C-alpha cells in the first residue's frame, strides 16, 4: 500500500550526499610573506575543525596571484594522482572578492578577513575558530576519497608561497521522497556560435538553425590552415545568466587548460559517443594535427554530457586559443539550459 501511494504521488529514490572533513593543513613555503599556526583538531567522533591564525606580513594586491593544484587518492591510501580540475587563477584582491561573493555564508568562523572591496589588502592577522568544512559548497559529483589541495601564491610568475590541505570525502545514501507529477531532466540547446575571423588561423562557417519546435542544431564547416601541436593552448571561460536576459556573470568553473593535441584526446576519451555527426575530425593520436576542414551536420547539443546539477539559464562560453600567450583564435558559444519533463 505504501509503495502504491509513493508511485502515484511522487518518486522514491536513493540520493547520494557527500561529507567532507579536514585531515591536515600546513604551510610549505613562503614564511617571508605569510606565517600560519592553523591546525586541524578533532571536534567530536565524526568531525574535524580548523583552528589557528594566519599572519599576512605585507600589503598585497592583484599582482600576487593565487592558484590551486588538486591531487586525488581514490582508495584513500595516500597514493595521489594529479586531478585535471582547478579553481580559477586570480589575483589576491579578486580571489577575496570571489570568496565573499560566492561563499559569504561559510565564512562566519573566519575573523578579520578582508572586505571584498579592499585593494590593496593591508597586512593583518586572520583568525579561524572551529571551522567545519562546508560540504554543501562542493558539487555532489566530486568522487569520494582523499584530496590533496595545493594553494600556490605567485608574484610575476614566480612562486612565493605554498600551502597544503588534505581533505577526506565520504558519501552516504539517503531515502528521498519527492512529490512531483514528473521528474525533471536538464536539456541544453544551442543559441549561437561565433568566432573572431580576424586572427587568421581558423576559418568557420557555423550557424545555429531551428531543427524542430524545441531543438536547435549547428551546421557548417570549421577549418585551420596550419599544423597544431601542444604549444597551441586551449582555455575556456564561462558566464551565466540565470534569468536568460543576457545579463551575464562570470562563473567560477572551467575546463582545464591544455594543449590542442591533449584537448583532442580528451574529447575522444570522454565524449566520443557524441562525435558521430562531425566529419573529418583529426584522428585521436595525431600530433601535430594537420590542416583540415571539418564538417558539422545537424549537431544537437549533447545534454546528457552535462551534469544535472548545472543551473538553468543562458550560458556563454568563451574559448581561447593561444600560441605563446598570443591569442590566435577566439570562439563564443551561447547555449540555453532548462528543465524539461522526460516522462
From TrEMBL:
<protein>
    <recommendedName>
        <fullName>MD-2-related lipid-recognition domain-containing protein</fullName>
    </recommendedName>
</protein>
Amino acid at each position: 500500500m505504501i509503495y502504491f501511494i509513493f508511485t502515484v504521488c511522487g518518486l522514491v529514490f536513493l540520493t547520494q550526499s557527500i561529507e567532507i572533513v579536514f585531515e591536515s593543513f600546513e604551510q610549505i613555503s613562503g614564511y617571508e610573506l605569510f606565517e600560519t599556526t592553523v591546525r586541524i583538531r578533532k571536534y567530536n567522533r565524526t568531525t574535524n575543525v580548523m583552528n589557528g591564525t594566519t599572519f599576512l606580513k605585507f600589503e598585497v594586491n592583484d599582482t600576487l596571484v593565487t592558484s590551486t593544484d588538486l591531487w586525488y587518492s581514490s582508495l584513500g591510501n595516500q597514493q595521489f594522482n594529479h586531478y585535471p580540475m582547478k579553481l580559477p587563477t586570480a589575483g589576491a584582491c579578486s580571489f577575496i572578492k570571489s570568496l565573499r561573493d560566492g561563499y559569504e555564508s561559510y565564512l562566519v568562523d573566519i575573523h578579520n578577513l578582508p572586505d571584498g572591496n579592499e585593494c590593496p589588502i593591508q597586512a593583518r592577522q586572520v583568525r579561524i575558530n572551529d571551522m567545519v568544512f562546508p560540504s554543501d559548497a562542493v558539487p555532489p559529483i566530486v568522487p569520494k576519497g582523499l584530496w590533496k589541495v595545493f594553494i600556490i601564491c605567485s608574484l610575476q610568475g614566480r612562486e612565493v608561497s605554498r600551502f597544503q590541505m588534505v581533505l577526506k570525502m565520504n558519501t552516504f545514501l539517503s531515502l528521498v521522497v519527492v512529490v512531483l507529477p514528473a521528474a525533471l531532466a536538464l536539456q541544453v540547446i544551442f543559441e549561437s556560435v561565433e568566432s573572431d575571423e580576424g586572427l587568421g588561423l581558423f576559418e568557420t562557417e557555423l550557424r545555429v538553425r531551428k531543427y524542430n519546435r524545441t531543438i536547435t542544431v549547428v551546421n557548417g564547416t570549421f577549418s585551420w590552415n596550419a599544423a597544431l601541436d601542444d604549444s597551441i593552448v586551449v582555455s575556456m571561460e564561462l558566464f551565466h545568466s540565470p534569468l536568460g536576459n543576457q545579463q551575464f556573470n562570470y562563473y567560477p568553473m572551467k575546463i582545464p587548460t591544455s594543449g590542442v593535441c591533449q584537448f583532442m584526446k580528451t574529447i575522444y576519451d570522454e565524449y566520443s559517443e557524441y562525435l558521430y555527426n562531425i566529419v573529418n575530425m583529426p584522428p585521436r593520436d595525431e600530433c601535430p594535427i594537420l590542416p583540415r576542414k571539418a564538417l558539422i551536420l545537424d549537431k544537437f547539443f549533447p545534454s546528457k554530457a552535462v551534469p544535472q546539477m548545472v543551473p538553468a539559464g543562458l550560458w556563454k562560453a568563451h574559448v581561447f586559443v593561444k600560441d605563446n600567450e598570443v591569442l590566435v583564435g577566439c570562439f563564443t558559444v551561447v547555449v540555453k539550459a532548462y528543465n524539461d519533463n522526460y516522462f
